[in-house]
Design goal:
The complex is a heterodimer of chains A (177) and B (330). Chain A is α+β, with helices and mostly antiparallel strands. Chain A has five helices and five strands. In chain B, strand 11 and strand 12 form a beta hairpin. Classes of the chains: A alpha+beta (177), B alpha+beta (330). The structure holds flavin-adenine dinucleotide (FAD), iron/sulfur cluster and FE2/S2 (inorganic) cluster (2 copies). The site of one FE2/S2 (inorganic) cluster (FES) has 11 residues of chain A, from loops. The site of flavin-adenine dinucleotide has 31 residues of chain B, from strand 2, helix 2, helix 6, helix 7 and strand 8.
């Protein structure tokens, strides 16, 4: 059964008719040609399909396109500025050699972008010792690892991924104060 | 995946009416469990009624100090809510111990409670499973039982409930509020989720078309402390082997009362009433905690592959109670 939906993908309005069964991931990749989100598992287990949906990180393989009519979707390919300059996270992944094959990378970067906003907003994680909303939790490596645990890297580039995110996390904390 | 009709519900009433009228209809929340099941071929609904945008997203403070939590609020927002963090840390902790940041951003309160077992055989439509296909047999009984129940299982199903949040909700005596074909109901979480018995296909006691609209958490006295501990195969992003949610109030070195639920051990969050009884009025010492844990675990019925869960649950429960009573509450 078909349904008509409109999405704003990486800043561009896209309308399409989809089978109601179509995941957001398949709509992006197969229907709209937006191939930066990757299909690793199709079951929510690996994070390689992570996108920002209305500004929040989600796995696009378990999202039904019809359920998100009107949504704003940002993929890793949509993160660079209008001048084409890499997003700070993309630059940091580059600088720290935070990938090998690169398959998990767009998902890692979208996830990190969503994660840094969550951390900045003072949201706790499993690694956070003090749940007190007034307590300011530093973004330690343990926090980064826990908050990024939904993104698997089969090449095992974790050490450099954490380093890249740490660098950007530090900078964003400094500039926001 | 079989084709299905999709509609977005405009109101609670419209959602319930549409579902009641169609035996093939199911509600869609965040979709993180349902979409997976559609893809795996575990379930074949003819109609999805999307309730994820119903305006049931508030955390409302009740006059008595309890909370009314909207059914469509996302797990990440619930875990981060200031009132939950300060008054019901067990709930925040349980949510934060579950799934991943991406999944918690999509998963809803109601969907979390109603998520289905992660039994490998249930998830594999090529193997017999009484829960998926009633009467076909239970593959786990003669297969791998490492993940399975040590309490309350039946001859027909030995699966465990996977939710962390539901374990906290059970320890908090939380109640779901529903709207269904017969109007509004209030159902304690411990009665919403059920043991398998001879109907393992039924995870819960909702009627067809009954919609969860809220989760209500009764207030805790100022001196009560609560916490959650989850034991799993890796440090993060894995389901519980065993988990413990506990709420305890002590006074002058004595336990006044405790409410405890165990996760990963039964088809529903397992209220450890034997341990609770043993603790009421007992000295708040590690010795009494161990005895209470032993009283509960003595009733466990482990299977070939999961006997390790018994000492694991005993030690985890003892440790959680010791942590919660380590200092007198301020
Ligand atoms: C890889 C992975 C790892 C995970 N790890 C964990 C973990 O460690 N701990 C944990 O607790 N969970 C874990 N989860 C499960 C996750 O928490 C659930 O998938 C999620 O909470 C379900 O919520 P949802 O809103 O997406 O539900 P949906 O998938 O939308 O729905 C689930 C069920 O609830 C029904 N439903 C939804 N809303 C309502 C309503 N308002 N009234 C009545 N019925 C309704 C649906 O019909 C469906 O049957 C994991 C999931 C994945 C994919
Ligand atoms: S334990 Fe339950 S869910 Fe698992 S195979 Fe047996 S009947 Fe199915
Ligand atoms: S493809 Fe979506 S989480 Fe793996
Ligand atoms: S870089 Fe290859 S999977 Fe992560």
């Amino acid at each position: 059964m078909d349904a008509h939906v409109t999405l704003r993908v990486d800043g561009e309005e896209r309308s399409l008719t989809v089978d109601t069964r179509t995941s957001l991931l398949d709509a992006l990749r197969d229907r709209l040609g937006v191939t930066s989100p990757k299909k690793g598992c199709d079951h929510g287990q690996c994070g390689s399909c992570t996108v920002l949906l209305d500004g929040r990180r989600v796995v696009s393989c378990l999202a039904l396109t019809v359920s998100h009519d009107g949504a704003e979707v940002t993929t890793a390919a949509g993160l660079p500025g209008p001048d084409g300059r890499l997003h700070p996270l993309q630059q940091a992944f580059w600088d720290h050699d935070a990938f090998q094959c690169g398959y998990c990378t767009p998902g890692q970067i979208c996830s990190a972008a969503g994660m840094l906003e969550e951390a900045d907003a003072g949201r706790p994680s499993h690694a956070t010792a003090d749940l007190d909303p007034a307590a300011r939790t530093p973004l330690t490596d343990d926090e980064i690892r826990e908050r990024m645990s939904g993104n698997i890297c089969r090449c095992g580039a974790y050490v450099n991924i954490v380093a890249a995110i740490r660098e950007v996390g530090d900078v964003s904390e400094v500039t926001e104060r | 995946m079989k084709p299905f009709a999709y509609e977005r519900a405009g109101s609670v009433r419209a959602a319930v009416t549409a579902a009641v009228d169609d035996p093939g209809a199911v509600f869609l929340g965040g979709g993180t469990n349902l979409v997976d099941h559609l893809r795996l071929g575990i379930t074949h609904p003819g109609r999805l009624i999307d309730v994820s945008r119903l305006p049931l997203e508030d955390v409302e403070e009740l006059p008595d100090g309890g909370l009314r939590i909207g059914a469509t609020l996302r797990n990440s927002d619930l875990a981060a809510h200031p009132l939950v963090r300060t008054r019901f840390p067990v709930l925040s902790r349980a949510l934060l111990a579950g799934a991943s940041g991406q999944l918690r951003n999509a998963a809803t309160t109601a969907g979390n409670l109603l998520q289905r077992t992660r039994c490998r055989y249930f998830q594999d439509p090529t193997t017999p499973c009484n829960k998926r296909d009633p009467g076909s047999g239970c593959s786990a009984l003669t297969g791998y039982t490492r993940q399975h129940a040590v309490f309350g299982a039946s001859e027909e199903c030995i699966a465990v409930h996977p939710s962390d949040m539901a374990v906290a909700a059970a320890a908090l005596d939380a109640v779901v509020v529903t709207t269904g074909p017969e109007g509004e109901r209030r159902i304690p979480v411990t009665e919403l989720l059920r043991l398998p018995g001879d109907e393992p296909q039924r995870d819960n006691t909702l009627l067809h078309g009954e919609l969860i609209t809220a989760l209500e958490v009764p207030p805790l006295p100022a001196g009560a402390r609560s916490g959650y501990r989850k034991v799993r195969d890796r440090a993060s992003f894995a389901f519980a082997l065993v988990s413990v949610a506990a709420v305890v109030e002590t006074e002058g070195g004595t336990v006044r009362w405790a409410r405890i639920a165990l996760g990963g051990v039964a088809h529903k969050p397992w209220r450890a009433t034997r341990a609770e009884d043993a603790l009421a009025g007992a000295p708040a010492t590690e010795e009494s905690f161990r005895r209470a844990a032993e009283a509960e675990l003595a009733a466990a019925e482990p299977l070939s592959g999961n006997a390790f869960k018994v000492p694991m649950a005993r030690r985890t429960l003892t440790a959680v109670l010791s942590d919660l009573t380590a200092e007198e509450p301020q």
